[in-house]
């Protein structure tokens, strides 16, 4: 009797093989979708830039500028997603793109996150005061993406009652006595159980329910931090909120 049937059953029940197959499928689908996504985002940019701004209200002009900024950010995210699916190039990050003002990136990320949750429970956002203007060697749009994911996740976790979200900055010594910046993003949400906390950085794992999350946001954010020589970690307890630590080498 052939043993192919039991082997296939075993393969289907092995979560590691299932995850590997699904990741491979995502790569194939992304390759087909990215061209169309770039066309759509390019169209948004083209039409917004072609509009005659003379005579328009200041508020309208500012809104158009925000549309262009978000569209450019989206184009960069498409490129980053493809980079995530393939090995990095030997050249690494281009020098002219590799320095970001963290304070400005946090402000830009919250501006988008606040719009996403404006119709839901109130979330009080606060950045604890700190001296200086720290910069890190990572493209700004990637840094915005990291904080945006953390902010949106925190806001969604605190719904419908709302809560508070705080960002704190500190410094620590890394390997070879290099100085690393640590940005703690702390929320007052429901927190996570140890089982959930253990899985949050696994591809396709999501605690948001069917249709509400891809399970890739934190995975990509951690990869971006590690590519820049840092890391992304989390500590959380049920009913005591969550704290994510964005760790990056300082310039």
Keywords:
single chain, 251 residues, alpha+beta, Heat Shock Protein 90, 2 domains, 5-stranded mixed beta sheet, two-stranded antiparallel sheet, 7 strands, 49% helix, globular, disordered N terminus
Strand order within the widest sheet? 2-4-5-7-6
Which CATH architecture of the largest domain?
2-Layer Sandwich
CATH topology of the largest domain: Heat Shock Protein 90
Number of beta-strand segments? 7
User: Percent of residues in helical segments?
Assistant: 40-55%
- Give the oligomeric state: single chain
Major beta sheet summary = 5 strands, mixed
| CATH superfamily annotation of the largest domain | Histidine kinase-like ATPase, C-terminal domain
Description:
With 251 residues, the chain is of the alpha+beta class. It folds into 2 domains: 4-85; 97-249, Heat Shock Protein 90. The chain contains 7 helices and 7 strands; from the N terminus they run H-H-H-E-H-E-E-H-E-E-H-H-E-E. The strands form 2 sheets. It has a 5-stranded mixed beta sheet, covered by helices on one side. Strands 1-3 form a two-stranded antiparallel sheet. The longest helix has 36 residues, at 15-50. It is globular, with a radius of gyration of 20 Å. Mean pLDDT is 82; it is low at 1-10 and 88-97.
């Amino acid at each position: 009797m052939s043993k192919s049937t039991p082997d296939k059953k075993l393969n289907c029940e092995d979560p590691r093989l299932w995850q590997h197959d699904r990741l491979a499928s995502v790569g194939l689908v992304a390759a087909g979708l990215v061209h169309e996504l770039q066309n759509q985002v390019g169209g948004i940019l083209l039409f917004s830039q072609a509009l005659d701004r003379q005579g328009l209200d200041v508020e309208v002009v500012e809104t158009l500028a925000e549309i262009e900024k978000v569209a450019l950010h989206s184009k960069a995210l498409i490129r980053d997603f493809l980079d995530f699916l393939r090995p990095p190039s030997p050249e690494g990050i281009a020098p002219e793109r590799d320095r970001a003002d963290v304070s400005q990136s946090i402000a830009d990320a919250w501006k988008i996150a606040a719009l996403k949750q404006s119709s839901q429970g109130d979330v009080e956002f606060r950045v604890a005061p700190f001296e200086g203007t720290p910069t890190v060697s990572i493209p700004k749009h990637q840094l915005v993406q990291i904080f945006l994911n953390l902010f949106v996740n925190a806001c969604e976790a605190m719904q419908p009652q709302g809560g508070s979200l705080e960002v704190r900055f500190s410094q620590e010594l890394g390997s070879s006595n290099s100085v690393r910046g640590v940005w703690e993003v702390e929320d007052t949400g429901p927190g996570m159980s140890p089982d959930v906390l253990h899985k949050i950085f696994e591809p396709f794992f999501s605690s948001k329910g069917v249709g509400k999350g891809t399970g890739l946001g934190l995975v990509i954010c951690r990869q971006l931090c590690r590519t820049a020589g840092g890391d992304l970690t989390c500590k959380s307890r049920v009913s005591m909120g969550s704290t994510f630590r964005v760790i990056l080498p300082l310039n």
